Amino acid sequence: MIITLQQVAVFFLIFARLTGMIILAPVFSRKQVFGMAKVSILFWLTMSLLFIVPLPLEFPTNLISYTMAIFSEVFLGLVIGFIADIFVTGVELAGTLMDTQAGLSVASLLDPSTGRQTTLIEMTLNWIVLLIFLLVDGHHLVLSATVESFKLLPIGQPFNFNQSTQFLLDLGAHLFKIGLKLSVPILLIVFIIDFTLGLLNKVAEQINVFQLGFQVKPPISLFIFLGTIGGLQDHIILLLQESSEQILTFLRLVSG
Fold it and tell me: Which residue from 19, 73, 79, 96 lies 20 to 30 Å from 142 (Cα-Cα)?
C-alpha cells in the first residue's frame, strides 16, 4: 500500500480535531487516563476514520493555509469537547452550591483527577456523573457525535461562528440553570434553617446561632442529599443524553 502525501495531510487534520475533543471531553480528559492511552486512542480513531471521512472540496495548497486548517480543527474539537463537558460541569456546580450552603466548603481538599480544590458533595457528584456517563455509554455518544461532525463539517472546510455564538452563550447560561436546578432541595432546606435560626436569635440573643448553624446544617444537608440522590440520577442521564444532541445542533449552525 502506497501512502500519499494527501493521506498524511488528511490524517493530521482528523487527528487535530480528535485531539481538541479529547482535551476537554468527559472521561477522556481525566488525569487517570494516562498520556500514552490517549495517544493510542487518538491514533487508532484517526486510522479508523481516515478512509471514510469526506474530503474537503478545496484542499490547503501551502503550509500557511494547512497550519491554519490544523488550528481550526483543534479549535472545533475543543468546542465539541466543551459542549460535551458542560453538562458534567453543571452537575459539579450543583455540588459546589450544595457544599457552600451546607457549610462544607471549608472542608475542601485537593482532587488529583482535576488538580483543583473540591468539596465533599461536589466530589461525590463528580464521580457519580462520570460513572453514569460510562454506564449509559456517554463516551460512545461523544465519539459518534464527533464522527458525525466530519459529515456535517468536512475537514479543512471554513466554518462560520456568526449563527452559533448565541447558541454557545445560551449553553453557558444553561450550565448555571443545571447547577441551580439540581441543588434546589438543599438550598431551600438550608434557607429555612437559616431563617429559623434568625428568628431564634431574635428571641434568645444569647444563643450563638452562627456556631449552632455549623452543627445543624451539614448533617441535615447530607441527609437531604442522600434522600434525593435517586432522583438526581434520572436528571443526570437526561443531561448526558442531551449533550450529543447539542453537539450536532452546534455543528449544523456552524456548517449552515
Answer: 96
**Which residues are CB-neighbours of 171 under 8 A, at least 6 positions away?**
83, 86, 246
Vertex 244 angle, CA 165 and 232, to 5° = 105
Return the DSSP state at 106: G
Q: What is the pLDDT of residue 256?
A: 63
Q: Is the dihedral of CA 37, 147, 83, 75 positive or negative?
A: positive
Could you report the per-residue pLDDT of 75-93, keeping only the tens digit for each?
888 888 888 888 888 888 8
CA 226 to chain centre: 24
Given CA atoms 38, 44, 46, 48 in this order, what sign does their dihedral have?
negative
- Cα–Cα distance for residue pair 208/215, rounded to 1 Å: 11
Position 220 pLDDT exceeds 80: yes
Which burial class, exposed, middle or buried, applies to 104 when counting CB atoms under 10 A from its CB (0-12, 13-18, 19+)? buried
Tell me if the pTM is above 0.90. Answer: no
- Residue whose C-alpha is closest to residue 113's, from 92, 96, 98, 132: 92
pLDDT above 60 (res 1)? no
| Averaged pLDDT for residues 96-114 | 74
Three cell numbers at 206? 444569647
**Rounded Cα gap, residues 254 and 256, in angstroms:** 6
